[in-house]
Amino acid sequence: MNLALTQPQAKVLIGTLEGLRKRPQMYVGKKDKPEDILLFLSGIQLFCTNLADFDRSVLIEVAQARGWQDSPLGILPSLQASELSEAEISTELINIYIETYKLLYHL
Question: Can you give the pTM of this predicted structure?
Fold first, then answer.
């Protein structure tokens, strides 16, 4: 049974992601490698997929609108192939997820 997040719950989720963007080490330890950030984000996505109607196609649309390509390995390979540093890739991943949740929950 899927339950939708309420807008107040979605705002808390987005606030958490904004905190992650500002202080990644607080959420994933001393490293802010894109793989560590993606693991954290994937955990949130898994929760939302199972309990709150997460639609991955919206994530892909957001990533593509920002110039990134999806692959069987996700969007990370496209980001890694760019000229961005690891910190910039991590920030971009977080930005993609924030924008996705804002669209999903009409915020």
Answer: 0.82
Q: According to the 3-state scheme, what is the secondary structure of 62-97?
A: HHHHCCCCCCCCCCHHHHHCCCCCHHHHHHHHHHHH
Q: Tell me the C-alpha distance between 56 and 37, whole Å.
A: 17
Angle of helix 7-22 relative to helix 86-104, nearest 10 degrees, comes to 170
- Match 């920030």 to its residue by tokens: 91
Task: Give the largest CA-CA distance in the chain.
Answer: 42
Instruction: Give the up-direction half-sphere exposure of residue 43: CA atoms within 13 A in the CB hemisphere.
Output: 10
For the chain, the straight-line distance linking the first and the last C-alpha, in angstroms and rounded, comes to 24
Write out pLDDT tens, residues 2-28.
557 788 888 999 999 999 999 988 888
Closest by alpha carbon to 47, among 2, 103, 100, 92? 2
- Contact (CB, 8 A) for 17 and 94: yes
| pLDDT tens, position by position, 28-63 | 887 768 999 999 998 888 887 766 667 889 999 999
